[in-house]
Amino acid sequence: VYAREELGWSQGEVSASLSAGAAVTVASQLFLFGRVVKRAGPRGASGLSLGTLGASLAAMTAATAEPAHSAFYLVARAAAGVADTSTAALVAEASSSSDDRARNLALIQSTRAGGRIFLPLLSGRLFEMSAHAARAPGALPYD
Fold first, then answer.
1. Residues in the chain with pLDDT < 70?
2. Helix (H) or strand (E) holding 38
């Protein structure tokens, strides 16, 4: 809704933006993650990437013009890629045995899969609840 209403994007442009974000996430996992972990360690990589993710999401709310909005979106996706991978690295590092590691990594995957199933339903319902609000329809707080 934001991209269409505020930026004037068509659905094709929104889809291209989402595809570019996914590509940046994969690229960050392939080419950036190892470098960040080498310099900061798994915990440092996790903290740095989560901090960058939060800062870039906050900056997106202030950057209502292009190309700044898209740049912050792509930075957020790169940071999310490093954060996602560093979480798996931390779980693997904290596991006491190979069986424990396998179980813990499987639980991460199952939890993520559950999130991909239920969170779109939940966010759709929350959006629906707020869409008819007198002030800032489609945004928090919910009426």
1. 1, 136, 138-143
2. helix 33-62
Distance in angstroms (rounded) separating the CA atoms of residues 53 and 58: 9
pLDDT tens-place string over residues 23-47: 999 999 999 999 999 999 989 999 9
C-alpha separations of 126 from 24, 85, 104, 131, 137 in Å = 28, 29, 31, 9, 11
**Would you list the DSSP string of 77-126?**
HHHHHHHHHHHHHHHHHH-SSHHHHHHHHHHHHHHHHHHHHHHHHHHHHH
Instruction: Please state, in angstroms and rounded to a whole number, the distance separating the CA atoms of residues 84 and 4.
Output: 29
**What contacts 2, CB < 8 A, 6 or more positions away?**
none
pTM: 0.76
User: 83: closest CA among 115, 111, 45?
Assistant: 45
Q: Token digits for 105?
A: 């990594």
